[in-house]
Description:
- This protein is of the alpha/beta class.
- The chain folds into two domains: 3-52, Phosphorylase Kinase, domain 1, CATH 3.30.200.20; 58-226, Rossmann fold (3-Layer(aba) Sandwich).
- 26% of the residues lie in helices and 31% in strands.
- The chain contains six helices and twelve strands.
- A seven-stranded mixed beta sheet has the order 8-7-6-9-10-12-11, sandwiched between helices. Strands 1-2-3-5-4 form a five-stranded antiparallel beta sheet.
- The model has no long low-confidence stretch (mean pLDDT 95).
Amino acid sequence: MAEIRNHDFDNLYWVTLKDGNVRLATKNADPGKKVYTERLVTEKGVEYRTFDPYKSKLGAAIFNKMQNFPFKENSKILYLGAASGTTVSHVSDIVGDKGVIYSIEFSARSLRDLITLAERRKNILPIHADARFPEEYSMIVPQVDIVYEDVAQPSQAEILITNVKTYLKDGGYFFLAVKSRSIDSVKDPQIIYKEVLDKIESYGLTVLETVNLESHEKDHIMIVGKK
């Protein structure tokens, strides 16, 4: 039998497996189905999916003691760089049937996987678009509670800022997974992080915390802030 404990954040759990390993988890909104290589654990008739911090930067940030977690039931989220839906699927578990994840992905191959996932999880809305041009999805995406970005582009900060200005409601939260090597493969990552933070703050946005993801993702940080 596994031991299940509530996490401090809404709809997240700690699962202690039979071998003593402790994993982060979400309740599976699509029981019996995996999305990637996560483990399924059933306890007292409830199925949980382990949330792998090596395959999700959001999972890594939670493991590395992120302090702000506004994802809740009914949240509306604009997710930039949804890829095949690994992290999106856990967010889907968290926000529930009345939440919505507007999932922007440019790669047609990844989008196919995302569409397959969305056929089973109705709170995921896949959108084939380029996050650099937020006007492309203005007819679909409303004002949202959270903007989350995980895009491997040199213009990561600019992409975040334009989408936050367009879609994030006042008082809403933003998350930016900064991939320093996608911005500059030679420059010291610490310098890149400071440049990104300065750029975000220069637009009047408030940075609440930065979380180093080094233990799970090399040369990455997560920036969390508020509009």
